[in-house]
Design a protein that fits this description.
- By secondary structure, this protein is mostly helical.
- The chain has a single domain, classed as Four Helix Bundle (Hemerythrin (Met), subunit A) (Up-down Bundle), CATH 1.20.120.
- The chain contains six helices and no strands.
- The protein is elongated and about 55 Å long.
- The structure holds fe (ii) ion (2 copies).
- The site of one fe (ii) ion has 6 residues, from helix 3 and helix 5.
- Pfam families: Hemerythrin.
- Belongs to the hemerythrin family.
- Keywords: Iron, Metal-binding.
Length: about 150
């Protein structure tokens, strides 16, 4: 079932919420690729994009937290690091399979690189983190003054 962003997941920062929506969309593409015979060859590409965008998003979120003096900054940064280590492990494995002999032509080989259990875990690392830890920023981000943007 696709992950759908809902208003209860808001963090109080529009850019961060946009990132989360986009991350969910990439995750849905990953899931679609796993379950579709026509799309399975795109799995390493989609998962690679999920990993890259997660990294980019975590950095953006940490910068924002730092700028508003978020008290959970260090614990949150550590949680991000833990997720990245796990996602990297899965991603490295998939990229390795994709470049192995016959890798992209063997759907079962690719599917084995991201079986249902790892897929469910990846989903909970991402969605669970947004739902539990990112939404906890809401009271702080709501209070934080909006950054001044020159020319706006
Ligand atoms: Fe986030
Ligand atoms: Fe986060």
């Amino acid at each position: 079932m696709p992950i759908i962003w809902r208003p209860q997941l808001t963090t109080g920062d529009e850019r961060i919420d946009q990132d989360h929506k986009y991350l969910f969309t990439i995750f849905n593409c990953v899931e679609l690729a796993v379950h579709s015979h026509d799309q399975i060859q795109h799995l390493p590409l989609f998962f690679g994009q999920l990993f890259d965008y997660t990294k980019e998003h975590f950095l953006r979120e940490e910068k924002l937290q730092f700028s508003v003096g978020y008290p959970e900054y260090l614990a949150h940064k550590q949680a991000h690091q833990d997720i990245l280590v796990r996602l990297k492990e899965v991603n490295d494995h998939l990229q390795q399979l994709a470049t192995s002999e016959g890798g992209l032509n063997d759907p079962e080989l690719l599917r084995a690189g991201l079986d249902q259990e790892i897929l469910n875990l990846s989903r909970s690392w991402i969605v669970g983190h947004v739902a539990k830890m990112d939404t906890a920023m809401l009271p702080y981000l709501k209070r934080a003054p909006k950054p001044f943007v020159f020319g706006s």
